[in-house]
Amino acid sequence: MINNVAKVKTIYQTLQNRGNYKEVEKDGPFPCLHNRAWLGPGYYFWEKWQSNAHWWGEQIYGENYIICEAECTITNDNCYDLVGNTDHLDEFENIYNAMVDNGRYGHDIKVADVIDILRNQMKSFNYEAIKSPSHGARRYNNQYSFNIKFKYDSQVKDNMSNKQRLEVRPLIQICIFKKSGLGLRDFHIIYIPE
After folding, report:
1. Per residue in 31-47, pLDDT tens?
2. Is residue 50 in some structural domain?
3. Is 90 within the bounds of a domain?
């Protein structure tokens, strides 16, 4: 059984800078309703590291972005965790494989399609959010990559250690389905470009 300890998390939302700072703090956070929202519609945040929110801002908006900070409370009961819950990962894979076997979805199954099945067809899915790694979105060599590249022993013939790398600030996104999900609170702007 997985421990259901509540964890307060600091999360960050990156938004286009429109100069409407009072409106942002009054009405935020803001949902992503784009049809390419990879985890489906919801309120997207970066977990833990503000540097990931800066990376995303530069990728999408150049220098014209702001970052807002908030807090939320995550438990095993309120967040479907594709980062650290292996049972959730197994379930996600099983749904994906069933969709492939069904054939109705063709070869163009998206992450959001699997999440849509989970949310709308699984009675046991009572989660307020989904947390997922965003693998492959960021290249290793940029100012926002925090990788430890390990040294290796050149005397060892079978040397795979020269390829060892550990990303210590991985891209982790949280998509909160409703504005009040996860007890979201204290939403405010923390970064405005000069």
Report:
1. 998 888 999 999 999 99
2. yes
3. no
Q: Looking at the domain assignment, is residue 92 inside a domain?
A: no
d(CA 194, CA 66) in angstroms, rounded, equals 11
CA distance 173 to 164: 24
Q: Which amino acid is at 154?
A: S
Domain with 130, as residue range(s), is: 7-83+126-152+164-191
Phi, psi of 84 (to 5 degrees): -130, 5
Tell me if 91 is assigned to some domain.
no
Residue 132's Cβ-side half-sphere holds a number of Cα atoms within 13 Å equal to: 19
Number of domains in the chain: 1
Note whether 78 and 174 are within 8 A (CB).
no
* 37, 66, 18, 129: CA torsion to nearest 10: 30
Confidence of residue 107 (pLDDT cuts 50, 70, 90): confident
Nearest to 189 by CA among 33, 61, 23: 23
What are the Cα distances from residue 17, in Å, to 30, 104, 162?
Answer: 13, 41, 42
CA-based torsion, 146, 51, 83, 94: positive or negative: negative
